């Protein structure tokens, strides 16, 4: 049985505030030229919900009424005042103005916490793992339609979903109807008061060659953070009343926004001792038009430090002499890549593992040829098995 | 003189709970070895006290599962109902030595019926607490026992609407429409009316509730919901007229707390000045015409 709300109740950010307004003439004489206005005021703004200034009612007789319903999406937390006012001409010709005020407060239905961790991927572009915890701060159960992460410009986001478990009601006979209801309930995302849902997203730069990548620039916020994107939450209340919220911009440290980056795109994880193997590196420049260092020639060097002009092979020999390398670099093809024409170039490095076990690859750094400035670095590990003889 | 079971039932149907309480107040509290008549009288007395909202006194007479919820202890009621459910399960499976095959079938049938009633109470308790997921699980259990019951299937749709899952409710009601012949009068139209209401089509919903009332003019749910549709369609006078008309024509059927609460809210909205007088008149009339267990405080006439 449907029941009318008994009070303004609690209104939540993202929901629609809907109200029935009734203006009636309770006097014993008619009034004329009636202008009805309804406004919603907060600390920051005043929104007009209805303005009858241009279309005043000619008259309202004794007992007559004018009813209307107004609706407004609540976009602010805190106190709200609904001001319903009527101005009219009384029978004696006097202009009268009658305002009425109705106060309520809107609350935040969710508490949202996020945590970002930048992960230097072994293959593919570096990525940020962003965990979001959305907690129900209301006093009722909320039916979550979705929690979605909309990645920022130049980025893509994919949800990392846990493996789904299929529940079974063991030990009792299930009719198709009963089993269908259980399956439906199991698929619902219901948040009890205080309950929370945790989601994990992988955020990375859009791949080169895509139309989005060509056009997009990753947004840098405040000089040392990347704008990852926003979380959008949509939920349903009783009889389908919809609520929708978007968070502020979620940021992460500026690992993603590099002028030029070095990415390991192909590496064998298990190799044999004393058998050469290859890794493939991609050298990519960003589309940031404000950067002056994107173009030019680059090379890959070995180790945490090197002499200016030292080649990859020379660096590898130095590392081995210093006793630092169980995996040594044999060669690099090509020696130098030029990014002035293309946004990306590929480099193949041939390595030789000398000892068995889990071994670190030498640190490979991307340097520009002219100024010997390091722009990026990659490192990885391989499992070296004994040579099959 | 002790009132007969039939007499008490007649008084209860008339809503004369004060008389039921008076006629059973001389009961001897039934102990574990109490006679069937003593237990019946105890139960009637507790029921009458509960109907008159003397929940504490009713609980002292009989340890009932639903009474703690009325006293502000809903978790205690839930716990008792779950224990009762398991008790019914155990009793149904109990092998009673010396019973004939027919008697055993009757025994199991009796305890299954009781268990179904407890499941219904669990559904209601979870609904009151807005735990619609749990309520749905109990509907699923009940459907395992009665998979073709259209009332239970409708319940699934109602709970889906309460959750806000309109598309799922629409699919549920659509699947049910093929079972119309087995449905109680008006249920199909009420389902369609609720769905249209949730979808914002208040005129369409009104027509469906009108259809339900044509099938059964004492359908309080359809009557109440039709009036709410009037209001949501911005016709407050029409809503008030609809409820007042229903109360005048079929008071015995429509005089319920939710209907009175809605009408009282409509009076308050229609006129701040005249509302007090209208509510006082409604309260006086409901107090005279309604059963003893009608809670007229919902009218807020003071």
TrEMBL record, chain A:
Residues 111-250 form the Trafficking protein particle complex subunit 13 middle domain. GO terms for cellular component: TRAPPIII protein complex. Pfam families: TRAPPC13_M, TRAPPC13_N. It comes from the Eukaryota. Residues 1-105 form the Trafficking protein particle complex subunit 13 N-terminal domain. InterPro entries: TRAPPC13 (IPR010378), TRAPPC13_M (IPR055429), TRAPPC13_N (IPR055427). This is Trafficking protein particle complex subunit 13.
From TrEMBL, chain B:
This is Tetratricopeptide repeat protein.
